[in-house]
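G., the chain you wanted modeled:
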Amino acid sequence: MHSEVVASRSAESRNGNGSSPAVDAVSLAIIEQLQEDGRRPYAAIGKAVGLSEAAVRQRVQKLLDQGVMQIVAVTDPLTVGFRRQAMVGINVEGDVEQVADAVTAMAECEYVVMTAGSFDLMVEIVCEDDDHLLDVINRRIRTLPGVRSTESFVYLKLKKQTYMWGTR
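Predicted structure as tokens:
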């Protein structure tokens, strides 16, 4: 298990006017430092970005409060008992947001995005095994009002998973 910063692009990270909070170059440098090591001391970050420890602490708290980033422990699901991952495309009749909200409430659904294209929603699911995945898709997702169809893409091997895109 290791810590990384996950930049949040969710609706909760938006200002009241629908725009994203402004993030200046110094804040981006702080985020980059935390992405390299989420437990890096504020004093070390301050030295790297040219701020005091207290100023870094304030900026990090502001970034957290605004929903710009989260500091979390990122695990390899296989090492903590989750043997099956899949991306599931969902086609919806009617209100896509209602289905997205229902799927978002499911603990197994780690990533939910509304899309344009072949599917209305793409959902990443992390489960203990194939039976658990079948239960989530067949008994919980497919039975939601408005779900017309699903297509599952079971992960055979995870080749890359990073969260460094937040400062590009």
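The helical segments are 25-36, 42-49, 53-65, 96-104, 130-141.

Shout if anything looks off.
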